Amino acid sequence: MRIRLLALGSCVFALMGLATVVSAADDATESERWYSLYFKGDKVGMAHTECSDWVEGDDKFRKVESKSYVKVRGVAKDDRWKKVDSITYTVGGKSKHEVLIKNGIVVEYEAKHSGSKQPTMKAEAKISDNLLVFDRKEGPLKVHKLIKPGDYDLTSDPTIMEAFLETVTTEKVTKMVFALGDAKIKETSFVRKKDGETKDIDGVKKPARVFKTEDDEYKTTIKTIAGKIVYIKRTEKNRKNSIVSRLTTKGKAKSDSGY
Question: Model confidence over 160-218: pLDDT tens digits?
Fold first, then answer.
């Protein structure tokens, strides 16, 4: 039986959640984002991201906590022993990740992805002597590395990515991106394409800037309205499966009908 399965890791920049040793000040700025997730036009899940921003002395801190879940149902061809038939299947996955960013640099990180048809991924990291001590495990595979601040140019945190996208033009640029949901640093290309339109958080279609990004695993389309990311389509390069993430309200994210 062959069923091509989604990589359910981080379809929203994520799509990002750790009790940190640094406590947010009382005057921290709080914000949140809700996303509805779609596969082949059907709503298959949701994601929620909470952020806190504060200042301690000359240092700017940002804490991001995110959770998401996906459940995909479909029909697959069963070609065992040349038998032509079909079966229904369900693929589910949960993700959470938390990150603490200090002056644009990740200083604490913890993530876990689990799913019914994929190995569990766990990753954690803490800064020590200006190096991020990073451990990542996916199934039996383990990675231990020391990450220097100069090993990446920016993180995939939505706010940080939005500020960077404002600088992207039709001239392709390549950056090293700490893909927080994937727990990896990826060489990623960015280019701005012809402007289009997409639904805003209120469900109304509006003019939007369109960007294309590509790394070794995914091709991604990002659309922004007034500088805010409202649409992400992430496509697996090997399987052509796509998850679409739309910025929405809490009620629509939690509903079954989406838009």
Answer: 999 999 999 999 999 999 999 889 999 999 999 999 999 999 999 999 999 999 999 99
Q: Which residues contact 182 (CB under 8 A, 6 or more apart)?
A: 9, 10, 217
176 CB-near residues (< 8 Å, 6+ apart): 151, 152, 153, 185, 186, 187, 188
Which has the closest alpha carbon to 234: 2, 38, 5? 38
pLDDT the model gives residue 257: 56
- Asked whether the beta carbons of 177 and 13 are under 8 A apart, the reply is no
**CA angle, 176 as apex, 163 and 107 as ends, to 5°?**
75
Q: How far apart, in whole angstroms, are the C-alpha atoms of residue 185 and residue 190?
A: 15
Domain ranges of the chain: 29-254
pTM confidence score: 0.82
